Amino acid sequence: MPHSFGYRARTRHMHARPNRKHGLQTPSKALTIFKMGDLVDIVTDGAVHKGMPYKCYHGKTGKVFSVCPRGIGVAVSKRVRTRILTKKLYVRHEHLRKSKCRDAFLRRIKRDLKKKQEAKKEGKIISTKRVPPQPRRAHVVKEENIEYLAPLRFRDIF
């Protein structure tokens, strides 16, 4: 048989539905609201053939630039040889999910804001900048009860 180069070639596992999750998606997935500027993950759903993006965009994160009645415009970065291009695609909502890539950043911002407010009440100024792990401070190890270990002498087991 000749080699296949079709539009969905080599997507056997990529477009497959997870175990015990076959069929259409839940209504809550369809009721997700996407707004312009949202960060979304493109994860193709094999149960919905319409509006499916090309396989190279599966797993990519992009920014919503347009919301239409049946499709959502997503701007994605794609590496083409030595350049990184911005590609604009229209994808149906079944193949998108809201990205959690900024959640940790937003949690850190809120946590730092609370720290600053508490420090301001105490009359202190603190830095909330992230600092990489520094080298450990120098110290001297005192020799107390040093136990020297030596291997046991070989004995016949038999």
UniProtKB/TrEMBL annotation:
Which PROSITE patterns does the entry mention? RIBOSOMAL_L21E (PS01171)
List the protein's name. 60S ribosomal protein L21
In Gene Ontology terms, what is one molecular function of this protein?
A: structural constituent of ribosome
Entry keyword set: Ribonucleoprotein, Ribosomal protein
Could you tell me which InterPro entries the record lists for this protein?
Ribosomal_eL21, Ribosomal_eL21_CS, Ribosomal_eL21_sf, Translation_prot_SH3-like_sf
Q: Which Gene3D superfamilies match?
A: 6.10.250.3260, Ribosomal protein L21
The UniProt entry, under PANTHER family, shows:
60S RIBOSOMAL PROTEIN L21
Phylogenetic placement of the source organism: Eukaryota, Sar, Alveolata, Ciliophora, Intramacronucleata
The record, for Pfam families, names: Ribosomal_L21e (PF01157)
